[in-house]
Amino acid sequence: MSGAPARSEGLGRKLRSKKTVQVPMLAYDTVYNDYGHTDESDNATADCTLLADIGFGPRHQRSSSNPRRIVIGTPPISGCNRERWRLSTGPVTSGWSGDIGYVYSGDFLFAHLLIDEPAGTDLAQLTRAAYGRLLAFVRDSQCPELLRIWNYLPRINEQERGLERYQAFCLGRAQAFTDADVPAHQFPAATAIGSPAPGLSVHLLASRQPGTPIENPRQIRAYEYPLPYSPRPPSFARAMRYIGPQQSLELAISGTASIVGHVTMHPHNLGRQLHETLRNLDILREQGQGSPQGLSNPRLLLKVYLRDPGRLPEIAPRLFEWAGAQSQIMYLQGAICRRALEIEIEAHSSAPHVSPNRLTRIEPARY
Ligand code: 3EB
Q: Hey, which of 254, 283, 336, 346 would you mutate to test ligand 1's pocket, going by the most ligand atoms within 8 Å of its Cβ?
């Protein structure tokens, strides 16, 4: 595809000969309230190891001059409001392929798309077309393996054309994966959240090497959810594991909620949903990385989406205790795809210095 990111040949050869994989470390910066300030001037384009700089604010934004910088319109409630993905080495190449922004460096690709939704548009068709273009772009790049996707759409729980809008989104997304011949066992980890901001925002991380999808034995695979949740089930894996620098183990955990099997537990009860969600997260970490206690310095990055931002004080102390002081938590205002869910939490866990031996011992259980 013309406009697809070009490989950095010299770097690629060097990495191949050493049989190492260049992997992004994901890190949240504790930058507060930096919206409205010209932080484009923070020399981002000169920083050759920065793959993505993602802010959270009142509306979705893209910067034509800097494809690394996007803002997602899920307003921060408290805590961090910005995340940056860094590579161990540079340089990155960035640009636009039509309206797809991308940043690229040998083994990893950050790409994003923001689509207007004119009144009267069919959201399923809009999603199918947007995903179709994104999937084609990723497939034709040097990093064709999807690891993780984030989706934000307005009025997620509203009915339109006889479907809840989340269901229409799921339908279009599933059709696009079918169109692109991506089988369910290759679905990436994902988040899909209702945003107060207009437009469909999708951003993703892809890589040269495939990751390992992880599932939760307490939950039915999302892509096997039965009707009547939607005409086509949600297309995502519960988590995706991949290898980081110096054999670190990176685990990208999808948005996780109070769901057991396929059933919403504790409808509308925030406190109990938090408890159930943390159980699911514990199991996903165990499936993906082995017992957290067995890892040196497990560090979690959490995004907590709350339907009602005013209820933060009810959950923050428990979450802080669960995550540990070394972790970072971002609290965002977002609507969850099932009306009875009050909270959804996504996580990124990075465990340094895991021996290859240990990796083979923690292959996820079959079930
Ligand atoms: C769930 O487990 C909760 O449609 O991409 C979480 C993460 C959820 C991703 C998606 C939906 C999605 O079904 C909702």
A: 254
Are 279 and 287 a contacting pair, CB within 8 Å? Answer: no
Integer Cα distance of 184 and 168 in angstroms: 19
Render pLDDT for 3-14 as a digit per residue (tens, 0 to 9): 444 333 333 333
- The string of pLDDT tens digits covering residues 307-319 is 999 999 999 999 9
pLDDT in tens, 75-115: 999 878 888 888 777 778 999 999 999 998 878 899 999 99
Pocket residues for ligand 1 (CB within 6 Å)? 151, 190-192, 222, 234, 236, 254-255, 257, 259, 337
Q: Of 323, 278, 281, nearest to 80 (Cα)?
A: 323
How many structural domains are present in the chain? 1
Domain for residue 366, yes or no? no
- Residue 249 CA to its chain's centroid (Å): 17
Lowest mean per-residue pLDDT among 17-26, 43-52, 193-202: 17-26
* 367 falls within a domain: no
Q: In terms of residue numbers, what domain contains 354? A: 9-361
3-state secondary structure 236-271: CECEEEEECHHHCEEEEEEEECCEEECEECCCCCHH
The pTM score is 0.87
